[in-house]
Amino acid sequence: MTRPPHDPAVFTQGLSKTFGSRRKLAEIMRHPFTRSERTVALKGVDLEIRQGEIFGLLGPNGAGKTTLLKILSSLVLPDTGQARVNAYDIATDELDVRRSIGYVTSDERSFYWRLSGRQNLIFFARLFHVPPDIITGRVDDLLGRVDLLAKGNEPFSAYSSGMKQRLAIGRALLHDPPILFLDEPTRSLDPVTARHIREFIRDRLARDGGKTILLATHNLHEAAALCHRMAILNRGQVRRVGRLDQFQALFAAHRTYRIDVDREVDLQGAGRVVSTGPSGEDDDGRRQAHAGREVRLVVELDQDHDGALSALVARLAASGARVLEFTRQEPPLEDLFDRLFSEGSTS
Amino acid sequence: MKPGARLWAFLVRDFLQDISYRTNFAMRIVGVLASLTVWYFLGSFFARFPQLAESLGGMDYFSYSVVGIAFLRYLSAVNSTFASKVRQEQVAGTLEAMLVTPNRSSTLVLMSSAYEMVSSTLWILAWLFIGRLFGATFHLPALLPAALLLFVVMASFASIGIMSAGMVIYFKRGDPVTWLLASGSTLLGGIFFPISILPEGAQVLARLMPITHAVEGFRQLIVKSADLAAIWPHLRYLTFFAAILLPLSLGLFHLALKRARLEGTLVQY
Question: Roughly how many angstroms between the first and final C-alpha of chain B, as a whole number?
Answer without folding.
Answer: 31
